[in-house]
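Why should sequence recovery work at all? Because a backbone constrains its sequence more than one might expect. Tight turns favour small or flexible residues, buried strands favour hydrophobic ones, and helices have their own preferences. The token representation captures these environments compactly. In the example below, the structure is given first.
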């Protein structure tokens, strides 16, 4: 029902910045959109989430460095990542939860933080 397409990943040096985008296809209502990441050898974890009405939640590890935002007209959510650290290296996945509680996932975009 919903297709999510992530973009913006890439290679960046420690201390640098990246901005990820996730575009959701179609016209629909949603409860929340967010970003998860999975680093090598680790479980997938919540990074940031924004709920309809603009309430946000962040993992402790990214608070003060990452900012999630959305453009409702474009059905797009963004993740601005600043002061990146090597431990931020992961595949980042976009998530959408609809009003019925059904989750949809993007294909993922890889972020590598390295010198």
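From this structural description, the recovered sequence reads:
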């Amino acid at each position: 029902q919903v297709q999510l397409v992530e973009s913006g990943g890439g290679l960046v040096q420690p201390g640098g910045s990246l901005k990820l985008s996730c575009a959701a296809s179609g016209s629909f209502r949603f409860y929340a959109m967010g970003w998860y990441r999975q680093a090598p050898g680790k479980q997938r974890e919540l990074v940031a989430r924004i709920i309809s009405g603009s309430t946000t939640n962040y993992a402790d590890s990214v608070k003060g460095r990452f900012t999630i935002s959305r453009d409702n007209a474009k059905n797009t959510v963004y993740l601005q990542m600043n002061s990146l650290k090597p431990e931020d290296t992961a595949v980042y996945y976009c998530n959408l939860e609809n009003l019925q509680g059904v989750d949809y996932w993007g294909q993922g975009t890889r972020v590598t933080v390295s010198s």
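A few observations help interpret the result. The mean pLDDT is 94.
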